[in-house]
Design goal:
alpha/beta; Glucose Oxidase, domain 1; 2 domains; 20 strands; elongated; M28_fam; protease; Zn-dependent amino-or carboxypeptidase, M28 family
Length: 499
């Protein structure tokens, strides 16, 4: 065959192979469906009841490492026990406790700019809890454009920049926002700046009010992790729009003395199982993953200080509970393992810990199906994280999910947020990631971000419980297929994430 013919035929062969794999997955799904699944056990009435209980004010936002997270975890374990699931945590319990380490800026730290004295966590925020001692002249460089910087000698000085809210649409989301601020600050430090001060303009003030809340707490990690290390660096400070007028005044001195301290807190994973029915396959597990924590009690916004996290991630929790209810009613051939991860908002700490200390042999986990924020946006919209390379680590698992969507769920799938080029890096921000890094086939089901993300407005009455129910059924039927097929889903050869 000549080269030109090969070039024409190769795409057709690729398409034919992909279609064949999808058809095979559909056949596998149809066969498993014929095995009398318990889809009818997943009911919107149960999901709505559980959602309003878990995301109500009683659990005060379930902040990771707090008593509120532990109380919510006990409540979830009680529901699982009542459904008939078996404990699969440590020592015959539903729980796997672990410690998280918090590093924060001390109350004795101080920041002065000219005659203005500011307190971290109130009227000024440092982007990282790092030891610093800076006493330097302050220079204002406008918006920090190359033209602005060309007019000022910044070496040995603290640099103040007006931060504008007129960037791309993604800038309203936290990861892109902080990534931009940190990367630009690092560039200025390389050029000789001793500190960088971001000052919100009127358009950026809403970002300041919304996203500085997380900076109050400091950094978290598993003990000994990278975020627990105390280090020195040039401070990066973020100020509100009210500072913009006086920050421009010439001849001001920037004085910043920062110290840090660390604490350990308990968090917990909730682990339950439904044993499989097949004598050989029951020692393998399909893992249904989610996280129970959110942001807890924080600065009040419009009079509301409880950040309930109804979508993030009570929606994923109640769907996973419903899936557990279905497997308890009708077990699959493989066992179902249900894991609610603690301290996800602190950096995927619960899932990272579980992957390092699994309560079942790691090699026995055949697939992970993760539920992350599944109750908002258009009724027919959803996404699979891990659907496309380089994030896809199991074509078998992805095709199983796509076959169910095609046959039953009928969601219009967004693929943009799974791309490595997306500025939010959404694939890297939920509990499927540690499993994927450990070469366990893993995908996440999500309905993506929305304006109430990480605000007190993420309340249960804003959740589309019909949509949560439909996605719970989608996840369940995908897992039912994986639990009952004769051979386990395969890991794609050569899988490697971009970071």
């Amino acid at each position: 065959m000549n080269y030109l013919n090969k070039q024409k035929i190769r795409p057709l062969l690729t398409l034919a192979i992909a279609m064949s794999m999808l058809v095979n997955s559909a056949v596998s799904y149809a066969q498993s469906k014929a095995g009398a699944n318990a889809l009818s056990a997943i009911k919107e009435s149960d999901i709505k009841r559980d959602l309003f209980a878990l995301a109500g004010d009683h659990f005060r936002g379930r902040e990771g490492g707090s008593l509120d997270e532990l109380k919510a975890s006990v409540w979830i374990a009680d529901q699982l026990r009542a459904m008939g699931l078996q404990p699969a945590g440590d020592d015959g319990t539903f729980f796997q406790f672990f410690h998280i380490q918090r590093t924060r800026i001390t109350e004795t730290s101080r920041l002065n700019i000219g005659t203005h004295q500011m307190v971290h966590g109130q009227d000024a925020f440092l982007l990282a809890p790092a030891i610093a001692s800076v006493d330097a002249p302050l220079v204002f460089v406008g918006k920090g454009t190359p033209e602005d910087l060309a007019k000022v000698d910044i070496k040995g000085k603290a640099v103040a920049i007006a931060f504008s809210g007129t960037g791309p649409a993604e800038i309203s989301y936290r990861r892109f926002l902080f990534g931009t601020m940190n990367s630009r600050a690092a560039e200025l430090v390389k050029k000789g700046a001793l500190a960088v001060v971001w000052v919100s303009d009127t358009q950026a003030q809403s970002y300041f009010e919304r996203w500085t809340t997380g900076l109050e707490r400091g950094r978290y990690d598993l003990p000994g992790g990278a975020n627990t290390r105390v280090f020195s660096q040039a401070p990066t400070v973020w100020l509100p729009a009210s500072a913009l007028e006086w920050i421009k005044q010439p001849g001001q001195q920037f004085t910043n003395v920062v110290n840090v301290e660390s604490f350990n807190y308990p968090s917990v994973n909730i682990v339950a199982k439904v044993p499989g029915t097949d004598p050989k396959l029951k020692d393998e597990y399909v893992l249904f993953s989610t996280h129970q924590d959110h942001d807890g009690v924080r600065r009040a916004v419009a009079g509301d200080s409880i950040w309930n996290g109804a979508d993030d991630n009570a929606s994923g929790c109640v769907a996973t509970m419903a899936i557990g209810r279905a497997f308890a009613q009708k077990p699959g051939k493989r066992s179902a393992l249900i894991v609610f991860h603690g301290a996800e908002e602190r950096g995927l700490l619960g899932s990272r810990y579980f992957v390092e200390h699994p309560t079942v042999p790691k090699e026995s986990i055949v697939a992970v199906l993760n539920a992350e924020m599944i109750g908002r946006n258009a009724p027919d919209s959803a996404a699979i994280l891990g659907q496309q390379p380089p994030h896809r680590n199991s074509t078998d698992l992805v095709n199983a999910a796509l076959a169910v969507n095609q046959s039953e769920a009928h969601f219009k799938l967004d693929t943009l947020w799974d791309k490595p080029s997306h500025p939010e890096g959404w694939y890297f921000r939920s509990d499927h990631l540690p499993y994927a890094r450990a070469n366990v086939p893993a995908i996440a089901f999500t309905t993506l971000l929305h304006p109430d993300y990480h605000t007190p407005k993420d309340e249960p009455d804003r959740i589309n419980t019909d949509k949560v129910t439909r996605i719970a059924k989608w996840i369940y039927l995908t897992g039912w297929d994986v639990a009952n097929r004769p051979t386990r889903v395969r890991l794609d050869e050569g899988f490697k994430l971009e970071r």
